[in-house]
Design brief:
Layout (H helix, E strand, L loop, with lengths): L2 E8 L6 H17 L4 E3 L27 H13 L2 E11 L2 E10 L2 E7 L5 E2 L2 E2 L13 E3 L4 E4 L8 H9 L4 E5 L3 E3 L3 H23 L2 E5 L2 E4 L2 E4 L3 E3 L5 E4 L6 E8 L2 H8 L22
Parallel strand pairs: 1-2, 2-3, 9-10, 10-12
Antiparallel strand pairs: 1-17, 3-4, 4-5, 6-7, 8-9, 11-14, 12-15, 13-14, 15-16
């Protein structure tokens, strides 16, 4: 049985970049010490979430793919001889920025993904900062599993998970920064958090893969990040789930051979009618 232990680092902004990286490093070390081989940290983990307002000063967070946060992620993966997945505010060129996730294994950059779906919602003004990704939906072959990475808003689109699955992903990671707008929490909070869990479990079921989403915790300006990082198996069963408010490691063993077992019992990929899906390439069909 091919089994890999994965870990999600549910982190919290600690007031400075240095103290936040120290916390993440500590949690990664704890996970690696008990056998985690693939570790994922939250979206844009090295700073406060920068998109709660349209503020040109935030572009100072941008850095290239060989910048300090990228090097830090590679060094962390080398120190523990593991795979580390981490999101950065990528400065591609003057005026061109992306929300990107790097996949690092034992000190090497295996590749990266640029967030394709860019939100524009209250306190999530990412369209002001980021251009959409242009790399498609790549899958990365690590020493332990074939993995894919979407980022936050990507996680709400069934097409994203399906394309990653069709490209051979066994585990789909979603580094995330999602939470409640504080004035709305009492009215909508439970429904929003429940929907977030359900969409991940649905991706796992519909595609017969493992799905893991890691989130931050804590209050930053107008958003209370709700944690609840989770790992689902190909039947949609929750293997692990984090608290709503504590920095911690969320960890589970993924038995990768179960993917074939589940897909032969629930043969959704076999029974797809690809000859009937042309409408999916249209923005809208009614009228």
């Amino acid at each position: 049985m091919r089994t890999v232990r994965i870990a999600l680092i549910q982190s919290k902004w600690q007031g400075t970049r240095e103290t936040t990286l120290a916390l993440v490093s500590q949690l990664v070390g704890e996970a690696a010490a008990v056998g985690a081989k693939i570790v994922c940290v939250p979206e844009l983990f090295a700073s406060p979430y920068p998109c709660q307002s349209e503020d040109h000063r935030q572009f100072a967070l941008g850095e290239p793919l060989d910048g300090p946060t990228a090097r830090w992620l590679q060094e962390l993966s080398a120190r523990w001889r593991i795979v580390v997945v981490g999101s950065i505010f990528e400065r591609r060129d003057a005026g061109v920025y992306h929300n990107s996730a790097l996949v690092c294994e034992e000190g090497r950059l295996l590749g990266f993904y640029r967030k394709n779906h860019i939100p524009d919602d209250p306190c999530y003004y990412e369209k002001f900062y980021f251009a959409p990704g242009d790399l498609g939906y790549p899958v990365f072959t690590t020493s332990w599993a074939r993995i894919a990475v979407g980022i936050c808003w990507d996680q709400w689109f069934p097409e994203v998970a399906r394309l990653f699955a069709l490209a051979g992903a066994e585990i789909l990671f979603f580094p995330t920064a999602i939470g409640w707008l504080i004035p709305e929490k009492a009215s909508f909070g439970a429904t929003q958090q429940s929907a977030w869990e359900i969409i991940h479990r649905s991706h796992a079921i519909a595609n017969g893969i493992f799905v893991a989403a890691t989130n931050r915790v804590g209050v930053e300006d107008n958003v209370e990040f709700w944690g609840a990082s989770l790992i689902c198996d190909p039947n949609g069963v929750l293997l692990a789930k984090g608290s709503l408010d504590q920095p911690e490691v969320v960890m589970a063993d993924c038995e990768l051979d179960r993917i074939d077992v589940v897909r032969t019992h629930w043969p959704f990929l076999r029974d797809r009618r690809v000859d009937t899906y042309q409408g999916l390439l249209q923005r809208y069909l009614r009228g």
